[in-house]
Amino acid sequence: MSTTAPAGGPARPDSPAPQRKSVIGTRALMAAGFLLPALVLLGALVVYPIGYSVHRSFFDRSGEAFAGFDNYVEIFTDESIFTAVKNNAIWVVVAPAVATVLGLIFAVLTERVRWGTAFKLIIFMPMAISMLASGIIFRLVYEQDPDRGVANAVWVGVHDTFAESSVFPRARPLPVHPLRAGGGGSFVTKEPVSAGTPVLLPLVGVAPAVMPEDARPAKALTSASDGKIEGTAWLDFTRGGGGKPNVVDGTELGLKGLKVEAVKDGKVVASARAGADGTFALPAAAEGAQLRLPAENFREPYNGVDWLGPSLVTPAIIGSYVWMWAGFAMVLIAAGLASVPRELLEAARMDGANEWQVFRRITVPLLAPVLGVVLVTLMINVLKIFDLVYIIAPGSSQDDANVLALQLYRSSFGTDSHLGLGSAIAVLLLLLVLPVMFVNIRRMRRESRR
Fold first, then answer.
1. Is the CB of residue 419 less than 8 Å from the CB of residue 58?
2. What is d(CA 378, CA 124) in angstroms, rounded to the nearest whole number?
3. In the chain, how long is the greatest CA-to-CA distance?
4. Which of 189, 193, 224 is nearest to 286 (CA)?
5. Sign of the dihedral defined by the CA atoms of residues 349, 353, 354, 356, in that order
6. 292: buried, middle or exposed (CB in 10 Å: 19+, 13-18, 0-12)?
7. Averaged confidence pLDDT in the chain
8. What angle do CA 331, 447, 346 make, to 5 degrees?
9. Which one of 81, 107, 405, 412 is most buried, by most CB atoms within 10 A?
10. How many CB atoms lie within 10 A of CB 447?
């Protein structure tokens, strides 16, 4: 404390400076008043439900008898619930990793693309769609019918490019026809063929509407060239009736492209394909052979992949999730990439590093914190996945695609509801999320200290 001496008088001490008061210290009551509604809501919507779920998980279906850990034991002994646990493990390992890797690739590549902003917009756009809408979209994408499902339309198109299916998948002979089953889906003539005698190969079971467009009326041969085996393969069916079996009528069409093989002693000695009018010719080597219509003539059309079948339903749903969330990962990683010092990248290139080495040794390590944020966020998100599985997986394979959140719904609100078991599943989900949240909080605290 200092003193001042006024002119002509004794010195007197300065008046003390006014002491500042802490806003929180002096207004604790006001702060508590602002926090109280949030604390009440937090307790009512978070703390109480968690406590009640833990308590209810130790009771039986009725909620009256204490069951101990029986509900938790059932989670790992019931086959359908344990399938949900295994599927959740697959989701946690695969979906966040794939979405993060794709987001990293998109973020790095779009920096070098002229239309990078437009590309980012397209990739991020699925985030604007709800899980419900995305589930409906991919339920249609994964339709088994190639005429409706985009995935199978593409798959069938690629397959048929290399292995075209037959146009006569359901063709077959009648008992009165000179053909019989030859094994493996093929048909053979009942008797060996001889040169000079026309061979008749009639079939039925092909709708005239699906016959080749350039098929012409079948041509009946009255005689065959010497030394050759000639004949006619045709659809022995007359619209409106009136035709006779084993007789080529004027309106019946030839089976264009039908493959005919001459077989002797189990070996194919000659082969030919029927023309637009159904006629075919084999060389003299076919004399005395039996003619065979191989199974490739009657191969069923390829119908694509059963994406929503038991073996592929989980990867298919994960694919739809990645489609939605890869854009989210890309945006966060792109924001982190914008803060990477460009001098380090240029210095590495000047030292002789190629682009892959710059990416692996400079870019990725500098983006490690951002990648950690994205990965942890997606891991927490997939632990709660419910909508996509519930909507995309059909009833026949929903057990194979089951996850814990879906099983929680089924156990708690299904036709055979068991609230004790549902509460145990909810507690298990909480225990699975807590370690991930703990790691995320520690990382955030480390970042705040820097």
1. no
2. 15
3. 153
4. 193
5. negative
6. buried
7. 86
8. 60
9. 107
10. 11
Look at the block and give the residue holding tokens 């069951």: 67
Please tell me whether the overall predicted TM-score, pTM, comes out greater than 0.85 for this model.
no
CB atoms within 10 A of CB 180: 11
Read off the amino acid at residue 19: Q
Q: Is the dihedral of CA 49, 52, 54, 56 positive or negative?
A: negative
> Which CA distances in Å does 424 have to 61, 65, 349, 407?
12, 15, 55, 11
Query: What is d(CA 423, CA 69) in angstroms, rounded to the nearest whole number?
Result: 12
Q: Which residues contact 268 (CB under 8 A, 6 or more apart)?
A: 261, 262, 292
Say if CB 383 and CB 437 are below 8 A apart: no
Cα-based torsion angle of the residue sequence 99, 105, 108, 109 in order, rounded to the nearest 10 degrees: -130
Q: Is residue 391 scored above 90 in pLDDT?
A: yes
The two tokens of residue 123 are 């990739």
423's tokens: 């509460």
The H or E element containing residue 376 is helix 368-383
User: Who wins on pLDDT, 117 or 15?
Assistant: 117
Ordered structural domains, the chain, with CATH: 70-153+307-449 (1.10.3720.10), 179-298 (no CATH)
Q: Distance (Å, rounded) from C-alpha 331 to C-alpha 377?
A: 14
Task: Summarize pLDDT for 284-315 with one digit per residue, the tens.
Answer: 888 889 999 998 888 877 788 899 999 999 99
Residue 96 to residues 59, 119, 217, 327, 437: CA-CA distances in angstroms? 35, 21, 61, 12, 15
**CA distances for 323 relative to 139, 331, 348, angstroms:** 14, 14, 34
**CB–CB of 56/63 below 8 Å?**
yes
Beta bridge partners of 233: 201
Q: What is the pLDDT of residue 251?
A: 84
d(CA 169, CA 35): 73
What band does 323 get if pLDDT is binned at 50, 70 and 90?
very high
Provide the pairing of β-strand 199-203 with 229-235: parallel
C-alpha triplet 437, 442, 444: angle, nearest 5°: 95
